[in-house]
Amino acid sequence: MKAAVRERYGGPVEIKDVDMPALDDDRVLVRVRATSLNRGDVLALTGRPVLARPMMGGIRRPKSPLLGGDFAGVVEAVGADVTEFKPGDEVFGGKTGAFAEYVTPKDSLALKPANVSFEEASAVPVAALTALQAIRKGELEPGQRVLVNGASGGVGTFAIQIAKSRGADVTAVCSTRNVDQSRELGADRVVDYTKTDFTRERERYDVLLDVAGSKSFRACKRVLQPDARFVVIGGPMNTPVVGPLGHIAAVKLSSLAGSRKTVFYVTRFNREDMDALRDMLESGTLRPVVDEVYGFEDIGAALRRMGAGHVSGKLVVTL
Q: Are residue 135 and residue 259 in the same domain, yes or no?
């Protein structure tokens, strides 16, 4: 099969012939129709931060040349123990190595709703799961006030919608060009960070979802209720060695003596959450925001753009 690969950290990214993945008894063989990019794909390509390389599979070189995580496609075959899916089913989900013609996921997929295209469905898995699990970790309740810092990217656009579906009052923080987008997605209030510092305002929040990591916890504490929850989702790449890990560590240290609860977590695929996302897509509660669609031959350009930042929603690649 064809797959986008990199043999060493930093690339180049090339489309090559690689072996088809084996179909174990508990797995599903999916022919990929579309895939989307996440920030983690850029980190896996560059090998940064260096301290995270053991989790990427190799310190000096990546253990596997394959890249990607999100996919949407059609089931080609199922393992002997699989009963939930059958050949011909349209599905979406996550699997390492998704920048390829075929993947073999296990529990990390769900049926694709008919009202959503392959391109839209491929934009959902990692980013929407991250938003869903962040809101759950933040213990968000109906009527509470939540602020999404970094509301214009993949995770942020889903976080706005999921928080609204749970009856929250949502404030989105983004740049000028994404103000209208945030409002259209359901934000009750939008703060343009190029004009206003949200940490200097009078508003107070019960939950802060920190996607951007653009402010210290000490600054954010000024706008948090005494019993607020601060959920760390991302952070800036300040150094190639530590990267976002430095921001995460600083938040944890700064919050030790206070009453606000800080949470950091790792997004994990599971069938229950994938089915929940499917239901939200089917009902129209959740709408993927696709910034641009690339052909498979241009996946290197898509990764470069993702690495440059300032993507509104998701970048999608069709196969």
A: yes
pTM, full prediction:
0.94
Burial category of 2 from C-beta neighbours within 10 Å (exposed 0-12, middle 13-18, buried 19 and up) = middle
Same-domain pairing of 159 and 204: yes
Q: Could you tell me where the DSSP H helices lie in the chain? A: 39-46, 53-56, 118-122, 125-137, 154-165, 179-184, 217-220, 244-255, 271-283, 299-308
287, 127 in Cβ contact below 8 A? no
> What's the CA gap between 228 and 206, in Å, rounded?
4
Render pLDDT for 58-114 as a digit per residue (tens, 0 to 9): 888 998 999 999 999 999 999 999 999 999 999 999 999 999 999 999 999 999 999
Which residue in this structure is represented by tokens 């954010």? Answer: 220
Domain that holds residue 93: 2-124+288-318
- DSSP for 221-265, please give it: GGGEEEEEEEEE------STTTTHHHHHHHHHHHHTTSSSEEEE-
